[in-house]
Amino acid sequence: MTPATRRTVLTRGSWPESRRIASILRRETVGGVLLMVAAVTALVWANTPWADAYQTLRDFHLGPSALHLNLTLSEWAADGLLAIFFFVVGLELKREFVAGDLRDPRRAALPVVAAVGGMAAPAVIYVLVNRGGTAGALDGWAIPTATDIAFALAVLAVINTHLPAALRTFLLTLAVVDDLLAVTVIAVFYTSRLDLPFLALAVVPIGLFALAVQRRISSPWLLVPLALIAWWLVHLSGVHATVAGVLLGFTVPVLAARGEDRDEHGLAERFEHRIRPLSAGFAVPVFAFFAAGVTIGGLNGLDDSLGDRVTIGIIAGLVAGKLIGITATTYLTAKLTRAELDSELSWIDVAGVALLGGIGFTVSLLVGELAFAGDHLRGDHVRIGVLFGTVTAAILATIVLRARNRVYRALADIETRDDDGDGIPDVYQRPPSSS
C-alpha cells in the first residue's frame, strides 16, 4: 500500500464537525467544573460535624405517593435529573451517526470498538478481583465501565492541555457510545422487576413525542408533558427511568425536512443547544452533590474501604481496565485493518485519552446505587472506589498529556492557522488522506 493511499486512524475530521465538537466541549467543560465543585462540596460536608444535616437533606422525601413518586431528593436526582442527561446523550449519539463524521462506518468503527473494549476490560478486572469474595460483590461488575465526559473535560481545562481535534472527537464519541452502552446495561442487568403493562403504556407517549418532532413541532407545552408521562411510565415499569431519556432523544430528527433550509440547524441540534446547559450546568452537578457525599470515618474507615474487594475492583477497573481496554482495542483495530496511526500523533496520546476514560464519575455512581441498593456500607465503599479511581486516572492522564503538551501546542497552531482569511483553517482545506 503506497503512502498516498495508506489507511490512517485518528485523523482530524471535517471543519464543520471539528467546530461543532469544539463548541460542545466548551459547554461540557463548564459543566464539568460545576460537577467537580458539587462533588467536593458534598464530600467535605459529609465529613464535618454537620454530616447529619447532609444525610437528612439527601433522604428528604418529596412527591405524590398516589403516583408512586414519593422519592428522596437523591432518588429524584438519579431517576429524574439524569434522564435529562441521557436525553442529551441520545440526541448527540443520533447526531453523530446520522449527520456527523461518524456516519461513515469506517470512521465510526474505531470509537465504537474502543468504547466496547473500554467497558469489557474494566468489567473483567472487577470480576477477577471479586471472584470468590463476599456474597453479592459481583453485582457491581458494571460500576467501573463508564466514562464521565464532563469530568474528563474539566480535567483537561484544569491542566490546560491543547488536545488535538482528532483526539477530542475520539474522546467525545467514545464517551457518548460508552453512555449508550451503560444505559443498556442498566436496563438489562439492573432491572429488578419488570411491569410489562406500564412498559407497554410508555410506548404511547414516546410514539406521540416521536410523531410531534417528526412533524417539526417543537412546542415545550406539548413535548414536555409527553416526555414527563413517558418518564413516569418507564419509572413505574421497573426499568430505570433514565432509559426514557435516551429513547426520547433517539426520536428527534437530525436532518432538515424537505423544503427547509439545509444550512439551518436540525431539530436535534436545536434541542441540544437548549437542553445541554440544563444538563451540564444543573442536572449532573446536582446528582453529583447527592451521590458523592460519603463519610470516610477517618483513617480506620478509609482502611476498611480500601481493604474491600469491591473498592479495589472499582479502582483497578477504572484505571488499569480503561487504559488496557481502550488502548488495546484501538491498537488491534489499526493492525487488523492494516491502518497506521495519524503521523501527527503517538500511541502515548491514545494511552492518555484512555486514562481520561477512567474518569468514570456520574454513571459509575449511578450504577453503584443500583447494584447495591439498600446496602449503605457497600454503597459508601463504592463511592470511595469511584472517587479514588477517578482521581487516580485523572492524575495519571495529567502526567501523560502534560508531557505531550508541547506537541499539542504545535498541532493547535496548525489547526487554527488561516493564512487566506476565509474563516476556515488551512489544514481543513487540504485534500484528505485515506481513512
Structural class: mainly alpha
What summary fits the major beta sheet? 2 strands, parallel
| CATH superfamily descriptor | Na+/H+ antiporter like domain
Domains (count): 1
CA-atom Rg in angstroms: 22 Å
Q: Which parts are unreliable, with pLDDT below 50 for 5 consecutive residues or more?
A: 1-5
Round the mean pLDDT to the nearest integer and report it.
82
Number of strands: 4
The CATH topology is given as Na+/H+ antiporter like fold
Topology as a string of helices (H) and strands (E)? EHHEEHHHHHHHHHHEHHHH
- The coarse silhouette is globular
* Assembly state (oligomeric): single chain
CATH C-level name: Mainly Alpha
Q: Tell me roughly what share of residues is in helical segments.
A: 55-70%
> Termini separation (Å)?
13 Å
- For the biggest β-sheet, the strand order reads 1-4
Number of helices: 16
Beta-strand fraction estimate: under 5%
Main location: membrane
Protein name: Na(+)/H(+) antiporter NhaA
Subcellular location: Cell inner membrane; Cell membrane
Pfam family, one: Na_H_antiport_1
